[in-house]
Amino acid sequence: MAKRLAMKVETFQAKYVRKIGIRRSLVEFSNGDCVFFDNESRKCNVYEQRPRQCRTWPFWNSNLKSPETWAETCESCPGSGKGKLYQLEQIQEQADVFNV
């Protein structure tokens, strides 16, 4: 991502990355949107270089807790609940990759 933005890794991390426990996460706006999410187009500006936290979305445990949380996820994310249908085993595998 730093390379795509023509930035040094250290500069990129200082501007766009925060630590959460032992993990790193992209900075978010106060509404929870990632700094690379374009609210007008409803698309990611760095999609091809997105990190694991984004590649495993929406299969996060926090989104899979209940039918209600999944419905909320589908309302807030334009791609959730659309496209390829995944089997439960595949979803659980992805959820285990990044426990959020």
Provide the residue-averaged pLDDT. 86
Q: Order of strands across the widest beta sheet?
A: 1-2
The SSE order reads HEEEEHHHH
Provide the helix percentage: 25-40%
Radius of gyration: 14 Å
Strand content bin: 5-15%
N/C terminus separation: 22 Å
Q: How many DSSP H or I helices? A: 5
User: Which class best fits the helix and strand makeup?
Assistant: alpha+beta
Ranges with pLDDT <50 over ≥5 residues?
Answer: none
Number of domains: 2
Work out the number of β strands.
4
Sum up the overall morphology in one term: globular
Largest sheet: 2 strands, antiparallel
Task: Describe the structure concisely.
By secondary structure, the protein is of the alpha+beta class. It starts with 8 loop residues before the first helix and ends with a helix. The protein contains five helices and four strands; from the N terminus they run H-E-E-E-E-H-H-H-H.
